[in-house]
Amino acid sequence: MTLVVILLVLVATMIVTWVALLLAERDMKAVIGDQQFALLSSSAAQLDAQLNAKKLLLASLAEAVPQSAGASAAGMLEFVRQHPIARREFRNLALYNRQGDLLHTQGDAIATLDAPARLRAYLDQVRAGGKAVVSPPFKSFLTGAAAVVIMQPVTDADGRTTMLLGGSLDLADSSMLEQVAGQRSGKTGYSFIFTKDGVVVQHPDRSLLLGNLTERANPNLATRRALAGFEGWTEAVGKDGTLSIYSYKRLQGADWIVGARYPVAEAFAPMIAMRHQGMIAAAVFAAVAGFMTWLAICAMLRPLNLLRQHIGEIRNGSAEIAVLQRSRPDEIGELSGAFHQLMAEREAAQQAIRDSEALISSILERAPDAFVSCAADGAITNWNAAAERTFGWRRADVLGRDIAELIVPPAMRGAHQAGMRAFGEGNMGRLMNARVRISAVHRDGHEVPVELSLGSIRHAGEYYATAFLHDITERLAFEAQLTQLARIDPLTGIANRLCFEETLQQAVLRARRNRVPLALAYLDIDRFKAINDSLGHAAGDQVLCEFAARLGANVRAADTVARIAGDEFVIIFEQVGQADEAARLADKIVAAIRAPFTVAGSPRQVTTSIGIALLDGDDLTPAALVARADAALYQAKHQGRDGYALAP
To answer: In degrees rounded to 5, what are phi and psi of residue 572?
Structure first.
């Protein structure tokens, strides 16, 4: 906290100082720019005044030029001698006719006129305006230096232009430009002049004279604005990459623009030095203020630091929560009291959680069913004692291992792993919270049938699967025994009605599918009621058991014998489709039953009647087949019993 406060004080102080200096620099920049533009405007006004003076001088000469001066060179020389002031102000004076052709110059030393072709372009402007016009700068043929020509029309008594009087000025040696050239801002600042077309008229770098600024690569922004009509001061980066203040002012007497350049680094050198000093002073002030703040905060936070120390001691177990400063009558005391209450509640909650976890762990450990939990990747996290008994693996051997490689059958591991991936993504699946029967693998390799109940819990952002697995080996054996008992006649030990109906249904389906024959025999014991009435039900049961035994001994292994009610029996003969074959089987059974039975210790004659029906059509149902066999049985009894009858 102390470091943050010190840093904030330092940053705030530096920002305030920086902003104040920036505002001061902005105001100073405006003052310097306005001052430089004012000086430049003054120089431009003086240059305008000098140009106007030269124009007035040339106009007065034009009024005094006699028409004879254009007729001979002697007349021209005489006229120039009469005006010595003009000879001092202009390097050369010359007369031109209306077409711009040279008539005479001011002396024998001047053999040719400077650039007449350049001047002819301005003749129309001079003739039309009737006043002097300053030509664009050009290189003089006489001196080789930069020069301009002021052209003034010469009129007759009627005001018509008869000749043109031209006075040339050497820009390099002209006193007219000295004031502009001498105006300098600082040590490296300078002034310059260029035309509205970009031609350089005056510049400290003589190599730039008569050059065109618009033809230079990437002229600076200030120059482009000045050529477009801007007047005033602005900031721009020069050709040398230096940021400078540029000022521009247009002349009235010529198409010239006077400019000045003042590098910003030089203009703001005092302010930059002041900025560095100010930032250093601000940093020192912030450091002192931060140190004082640190001392104050340390004194104020000493009780809080002591509270932190006590809490640390409570966490590592070296102190009890009673060490908290609850007696202080301030915010620290209130905070200590709040921590004391919070920690007391936390300890109570943790103890309750530990008690609950111990109870749950004890319940799971003593549960009769195997309990297994694993992470989403299949790693086992819990394994109780019942799981050890059910699967043969000790708890220490399985924790952290993949459950799939321990108890999941190999054929089911692919589906198990896909399900665990979906479970890890939050897709619980259809088996969750359901009870299903599956097979698991014991440590010795044999499969254990179990009833599985799956669940899920979420802890620390991760899903964990929980499973109770109940070994149902004994239950399945018992169910199989019940199923078997439900299909067996308890008295005779042969198939009962339920088993017979299921077997007949399957036999009929096989016969139709495989195109094989089938026969059904329906039997009962002749005069069985008389045996029960005379000898008792025990004797009757003895006869039924012996009868069932003889039937089973006289049929094929593929045939099915069943008792469906009382003394009624049925036999399913598979692959028997001819009447004579069925008759031979019936004769065999009737003959086997004729042998005397031993009933209640005495021999007794027992006979049977048989009705046989053949499956001779795909549309005959099992019930219809039984009905036909039953009808044939009644026909056999009508024929005198102790025999058989075939259904028509």
So the answer is: -100, 115
Backbone angles phi, psi at 626, to 5 degrees: -65, -40
Going by pLDDT thresholds of 50, 70 and 90, the confidence category of residue 178 is: low
* β-strands 138-139, 146-155 pairing: antiparallel
- Asked whether the beta carbons of 86 and 61 are under 8 A apart, the reply is yes
Rg of the chain in Å (alpha carbons):
65
Which residues, in sequence order, are bridge partners of residue 166? 94, 151
- What letter does residue 411 receive in the DSSP assignment? G
The closest alpha carbon to 256, from 164, 206, 191, belongs to 191
SS (H, E, C) 100-132: CCEEEECCCCCCCCCCHHHHHCCHHHHHHHCCC
Q: Is 392 helix (H, G, I), strand (E, B) or coil?
A: coil
The H-assigned helical ranges of 220-268 are 221-227, 264-267
Taking the CA atoms of 403, 409, 414 and 416 in sequence, report the sign of the dihedral they define: negative
Q: In one letter, which amino acid is 346?
A: R
pTM for this entry: 0.42
Instruction: Give the number of other Cβ atoms within 10 Å of residue 343's Cβ.
Output: 16
Would you call 25 exposed, middle or buried from its count of C-beta atoms within 10 A (0-12, 13-18, 19+)?
middle
pLDDT tens per residue across span 587-616: 999 999 999 999 988 899 999 999 999 987
At residue 305, the 3 state secondary structure works out as: helix
pLDDT(459) > 60:
yes
Q: Look at the alpha carbons of 8, 10, 12, 15 in this order and tell me if their dihedral is positive or negative.
A: negative
Distance, in Å, from the CA atom of 85 to the CA atom of 292, rounded to the nearest integer, reads 81
Query: Is the Cβ–Cβ distance between 76 and 69 less than 8 Å?
Result: yes
Helix 579-594 vs helix 537-553: crossing angle, to nearest 10: 140
Checking DSSP bridges between strand 380-383 and strand 370-375, what pairing results, if any?
antiparallel
| Sheet strands (E) in 430-546 | 435-441, 447-459, 462-471, 518-525
Report whether 188 contacts 263 (CB < 8 A): yes
Extract long-range pairs of 304-311: CB within 8 Å, 24+ residues apart.
304/332, 304/335, 307/332, 307/335, 307/336, 307/339, 310/336, 311/339
d(CA 263, CA 245): 6
CB atoms within 10 A of CB 342: 11
Q: How far apart are CA 51 and CA 48, in angstroms?
A: 5
List of residues 6+ apart from 459 with CB closer than 8 A: none
The predicted pLDDT at position 168 comes to: 77
At 134-155, the pLDDT tens digits run 878 877 766 677 788 888 787 7
Residue 380 near residue 373 (C-beta atoms within 8 A): yes
Give Cα 56 distance to the centre of its chain.
Answer: 80
Structure token pair of residue 286: 């912030």
Are the beta carbons of 26 and 303 closer than 8 angstroms?
no
> 265, 261, 285, 243: which is closest to 194 by C-alpha?
261
Separation CA 140–CA 168 (nearest Å): 9
Q: What is the pLDDT of residue 106?
A: 59
Report how far residue 305's alpha carbon sits from residue 430's, in angstroms, rounded to the nearest whole number: 56
Distance CA 123, CA 132 (A): 10
